Amino acid sequence: MYQMLALAALTLAPAQDGPLSISNDRITFCGEFGPSRPNNRFLPGDTFYLAFDVDNLKMDPAGVVSYMMGMEVTNAAGQSIYKQPPVKSEMVLPLGGNKMPARGFVLLDVTTPPGTYNCKLTVTDLKSSAVKSVDKAFEVLPPAFGMVGMFTSADEKAEIPAPLMGIPGQVLYLNFTVVGFGRRADTKQPDLVTELKILDQSGKPMTEQPSTLAYDKGVDEKLSQLPFIFRIPMNRSGVYTVVVEATCKVTDKKYKISFPLTVLPSAK
Predict the structure, then answer these.
(1) Which residue has the higher pLDDT, 86 or 268?
(2) How far is the C-alpha of 171 from the C-alpha of 84, rounded, in Å?
(3) How far apart are CA 66 and CA 90, in angstroms?
(4) CA-CA distance, 185 to 97, in Å (whole number)?
(5) What is the CA radius of gyration of the chain?
(6) Per-residue pLDDT tens over the stretch 4-20
(7) SS3 state of residue 104
(8) Pairing of strands 211-215, 225-233
């Protein structure tokens, strides 16, 4: 009986005769599961995400693929500024197929010098010894006021990344950091407000007033980054636009970001 099941599984498994390749490579926004970023420009303190699919990794009958992936970041002069040696990994792909989603990310420190950089990820199939690489250039801008490191998570501790979609009853957490804010001359404190509003497909706000979070006291003078987290219960299905705006009342500077949110109908 078990031999028949094994033979059936082998018969049903998709062909993997093609060469190792990489497809659907893109710089993502709002975390590793987010949509393609509209540009490749980042503020210091932000996070660069590179997502892609690895095609035609050699799979054993149990759906296991074995591979190594390494990363290197170089500056405009071609000098290596960060290198992650290849790490051996195994992944079970129980749905079969010949694609494995993969991603890498680079944390850009607030002291990262402005300029153009390149991130290269290299994948090695340990079963076939085939090697394939993907790289993307990105630009780090001079320090300025803005929201950085934005991503969504399925938990309040921000330990489980989540896509910008779900079903009614789930909760999404939006995490980000504000940098480049000013401080009051007398109190040495920031006066910083962030607002979150959600629009329907016609652009109508779902609530009369936005959700707000603020910092205006009790902030250590050494801090140059302030974290925020908005809780977004997904109470009904629909396609929405999330709009987040940060305002520094000390410098009168504003920064706005918007992105789609899809809440799928619950299964019947």
Answers:
(1) 86
(2) 34
(3) 4
(4) 60
(5) 22
(6) 222 233 333 344 568 99
(7) strand
(8) unpaired
- What are the phi and psi torsion angles at 197 (to 5°)? -135, 150
Q: CB neighbours of 130 closer than 8 A, spacing ≥ 6? A: 19, 20, 124
In the CATH scheme, what architecture does the domain 2-140 have? Sandwich (2.60)
Say how far apart CA 160 and CA 152 lie, in whole Å: 9
Q: How many Å apart are CA 218 and CA 74, to the nearest integer?
A: 39
Question: What global pTM score does this model have?
Answer: 0.88
Tokens of 199: 């629009």
Q: CATH 2.60.40.10 residue ranges in the chain?
A: 146-263
CB-based contacts of 268, cutoff 8 Å, min separation 6 = none
Superfamily of domain 146-263 in CATH is Immunoglobulins (2.60.40.10)
Tokens encoding 99: 């694609």
Q: Look at the block and give the residue holding tokens 């908005």.
A: 230
